[in-house]
Please model this.
Amino acid sequence: MTLEARGIVVDVDGSTRILHGIDVVVPGTGLTALVGPNGSGKSTLLRQLSGVERPTHGTVLLDGADLHALGRRERARRIAVVEQEAASELALTCLEVAMLGRMPHQGLLGATSREDRVVATEALRRAGADAWAERSFASLSGGERQRVRLAAALAQQPRILVLDEPTNHLDVRASLETIALLRTLADDGVTVVAALHDLTLAGWADHVALLADGRLAASGPVAEVLTAERIASVYDVRAHVGPDPLTGRLAVTVALP
Amino acid sequence: MMAARRRRIAIGAIALAVATPLLATLAVVLGAADLSFGDVWATIGAHLGIGQPVLTPIEDGIVWQRRVPRVLTAIAVGAGLAVCGAVMQSVTRNPLADPYLLGLSSGASLGAVCALLLGVAIPLPIAAFGGAALALALTVGLATGIGQVTPTRTVLAGLAVSSMLGAITSLIIFWTVTGDSYREILGWLLGTLAAARWEAVALTWIGLVAIVVPIVLVARRLDAFAFGDRHAASLGIHPGRTRLLLLAATALLTGILVSVSGAIGFVGLIVPHAVRLLTGPGHRALLPLSALAGGIVLLVADTIARTAFEPRELPVGIVTALVGAPAFAAILLRRRVET
Model:
């Protein structure tokens, strides 16, 4: 499913403008990375794309139709979200957290079926979190929580997966495993859009949208967007882009000017 | 862990459901007048048209006109307060929330005091609900005025509203009440079930069934608030609307309960915490078990209030505060250790 933002403007507290009219398309196939410096508006744009928030101006289209014309539950069956930070006061087990993802598929009374349990368990396994299924979510490390919340989103069986910094708190191996999982999901036909800080991880994506100061600086295929000149100007660094000697993927190295 | 927890929940639910009628009968038996379990049930049976009366008319009056309605009212009020507390803790994501923290009880008391003392010609429960709804509107309005409504802002706004309405209530009482009625109004303000008759039973049980049953049926949707509003929204729930609807329902129930019992504290705060130790955080088990446990807690507290210093009677709110305040402190200490 294709997501398209048209003229998205977001103001907060009535005055501060976070996004200044963004037009961007998240293609229906593949993995789209959203990159940009801190404070460039990545998280805010993701919230508009996922429909969790409404923009001040502009519209978000899902396969060409207004996203907000869909019912909330209908939307939640198509789009799942992994937020950047999420704490819970509640002492839920990891399986219970994953089961939350089944909610849009359940009736009003929220009766859980055997299928819900199977899907949630499988989602935990896929996210590499099945070992902690019975453990309390609150007792996990930041990286472990990240995986469990990814599992909850997978349990939602979405057509579109929206993730804000999914590799936060993860060590190098876990980061790679996560991005490889997103790659697999994208190859399986799920539309994946993720905000990423690590530009080399963004090299795993098919498409990249680069934000700077609440405006779209560039978007398109990875090799076209992530050029040394553009990275240098947006991040104010010296940049080198070239194939990684180990993997052959696009790799970005940077230095202070 | 989940299988073990489910078994624990089932055992807990059965134990509470069995304990309630036993303790209720015991509560009717206890007190001046020499009664037995058999007397109580025979009397209830006789009034329901089964069997013959076994007690003298005076004893019969004590059982049927005083103690049975009082016990039934205590169960309904305790159950309602516990569910109100559990729901508020959930939708405000504040483990210390209850009808008091958001100002609803203060509002309900003010409404009731207006009806009682200023001769405002509306029925007490409606006045109390009006007060609770006013308090809710003020709290939400103030929270909205600060900016986007967040749980923390809602609670802070509730604190401001609660202080203000409490002060107005005190002012009205100080200004208008003299002599004997001072003691009476003070007793009601502290929370008492001494005046509960069959009208109170009807009012509280209708409120309980009409408001708590639907909330319990959709309890699982409250789980969606576990990770905050945005996550709830991504699961297909309208967080603002859901929160407002649930808070309005708790305001209505709080108004009904306060109009009957006065402001009884700590039940709504403590009972859900205790029940969570057994059920875990899932609302599908938490809400019905909180209702059962809350009913028992207030039933026991009221029986203590009624019989401990016979013939003098304590306002039950004093008993719940004496037990609840240390339990509240224990929650705070526990949380400090955990987080």
In short: The mean pLDDT of chain B is 87.
